[in-house]
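[step 3/7] inverse_fold.run input=structure_tokens len=515
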């Protein structure tokens, strides 16, 4: 759907000053209504089509709607569209395609006037942007504090004000008047957390691309805010999103070299869970994969290979002392790979996270500082739970010879299967002996290079070089804590002897010998 002008321009006779004044007056009256009406009036005056194209968002306004793709392409490749008139306007590109009978002077005048009016509208919006951004940040903080009803009521009250809401890639506009019904429709949230050196510029670009409003468009409302040096994007919707915000966040991440994590959709009441999950996912992002969903973090390729019943029964037994909040804290800690990062993701102090993990270690009766215990814990947390599939709780298995299930020891035969051995050998089977020993030692030291190099009696630079070769050979991101946990289990499953630093092949001094 597009907005058309009031009357068509009749190109009869030479173009003069009177025509210019009439065109300017029509454009000015349209600009007082909305940007979409302004672009629609420009299209009517040149008897063709008009598009305001943004390099990130695509077509912001388009008349007719079918011209959106042509306008974006013309803005990106002007040499391929010589018949179009293009001018920068409000951080975007105004593209006009006049009819063949429209005088060039008239087209130029309409383009210049429209671009100037779009700039004025953009400056006015920029004056209000600071206040709007602060409001968005406040609403995000309220969601994180659990005040979902306050946020939805605020959105409902704001939707009673008639406000321009740009349509997606079509330039259609609408005014609201739905009252609190809009706020009530927002039941779920998808959260994105972006980090990088260019966050301020990315915030401005994404704000302009998303054009956020407190008026939900297509049952959705996007909130953007900067919290603790990060850019947080919360898309509120009714159970699912159409992927538009995801595409915009992906483009902005690539353009400004940011790393991003996303989590959701989750119910609004679980906003803190989505917020921390997005932070955990961001720690797994790389320049080759700049945005990572939370459900892909910690998703084990090993877990589907394990026998379902003994695996689920062991995990249920081990985790029985933990509440859901405890499990979430441990999962975020294991995903991020450190207590300070987990604290930042959870919005807690590092001291609080350390104290809670010590208490959880006491509940589990395990040393959670041990690399094997951490790998087993992540495996238990990722196990299928009875409530996930609607099944009844598994009956407890018979106690083993050493008593109830323990975190340090997996049930007999759980990893001793042909499928698990094939997976483990496929992952780490081709490592050279010195690389395997170095990698195992580094993993035991929780990815800390200095203590691992000291135990191996090699220089830190040497160990860093070896780890780089390991990452290249394994085609794995060693900065990902969940990848490290699986590598640790794979090395243990394929171990023929102890991966002892004393067994590191050497040839005199602090060097090594390849076998």
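[step 3/7] decode complete -> sequence:
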């Amino acid at each position: 759907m597009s907005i058309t002008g009031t009357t068509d321009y009749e190109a009869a006779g030479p173009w003069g000053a009177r025509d210019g004044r009439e065109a300017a007056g029509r454009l000015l009256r349209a600009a007082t209504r909305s940007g979409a009406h302004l672009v629609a009036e420009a299209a009517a005056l040149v008897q063709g089509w008009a598009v305001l194209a943004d390099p990130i968002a695509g077509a912001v306004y388009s008349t007719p709607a079918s011209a959106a793709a042509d306008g974006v392409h013309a803005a990106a490749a002007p040499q391929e569209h010589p018949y179009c008139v293009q001018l920068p306007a409000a951080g975007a590109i105004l593209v006009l395609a006049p009819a063949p009978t429209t005088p060039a002077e008239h087209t130029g005048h309409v383009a210049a006037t429209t671009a100037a009016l779009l700039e004025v509208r953009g400056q006015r919006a920029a004056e209000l942007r600071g206040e709007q951004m602060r409001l968005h940040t406040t609403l995000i903080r309220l969601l994180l504090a659990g005040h979902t009803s306050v946020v939805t009521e605020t959105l409902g009250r704001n939707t009673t004000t008639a406000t321009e809401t740009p349509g997606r890639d079509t330039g259609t506009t609408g005014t609201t008047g739905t009252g609190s019904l809009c706020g009530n429709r927002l039941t779920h949230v998808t959260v994105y957390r972006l980090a990088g050196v260019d966050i301020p510029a990315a915030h401005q670009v994404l704000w302009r691309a998303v054009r956020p409003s407190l008026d939900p468009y297509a049952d959705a409302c996007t909130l953007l805010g900067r919290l603790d040096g990060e850019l947080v994007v919360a898309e509120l919707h009714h159970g699912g999103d159409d992927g538009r915000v995801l595409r915009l966040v992906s483009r902005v991440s690539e353009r400004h070299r940011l790393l991003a994590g996303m989590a959701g959709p989750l119910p609004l009441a679980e906003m803190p869970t989505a917020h921390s999950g997005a932070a955990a996912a961001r720690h797994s992002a790389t320049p080759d994969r700049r945005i990572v969903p939370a459900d892909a973090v910690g998703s084990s390729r090993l877990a589907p290979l394990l026998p379902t019943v003994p695996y689920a029964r062991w995990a249920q037994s081990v985790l029985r002392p933990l509440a859901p909040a405890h499990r979430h804290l441990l999962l975020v800690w294991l995903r991020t790979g450190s207590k300070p990062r987990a604290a930042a993701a959870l919005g807690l102090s590092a001291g609080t996270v350390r104290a809670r993990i010590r208490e959880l270690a006491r509940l589990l009766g395990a040393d959670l500082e041990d690399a094997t215990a951490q790998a087993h814990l992540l495996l238990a947390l990722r196990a299928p739970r009875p409530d996930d599939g609607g099944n009844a709780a598994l009956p407890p298995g018979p106690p083993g010879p050493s008593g109830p299930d323990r975190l340090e020891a997996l049930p007999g035969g759980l990893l001793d299967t042909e499928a698990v051995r094939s997976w483990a050998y496929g992952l780490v089977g081709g490592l050279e002996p010195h690389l395997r020993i170095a990698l195992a030692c580094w993993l035991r030291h929780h990815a800390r290079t200095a203590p691992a190099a000291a135990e191996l009696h090699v220089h830190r630079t040497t160990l860093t070089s070896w780890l780089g070769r390991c990452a290249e050979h394994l085609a794995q991101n060693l900065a990902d804590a969940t990848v490290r946990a699986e590598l640790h289990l794979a090395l243990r499953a394929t171990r023929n002897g102890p991966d002892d630093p004393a067994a590191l092949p050497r040839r005199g001094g602090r060097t090594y010998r390849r076998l």
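[step 4/7] annotate
Residues 1-13, 159-183, 388-394, 397-403 have pLDDT under 50 and may be disordered.
The radius of gyration is 29 Å.
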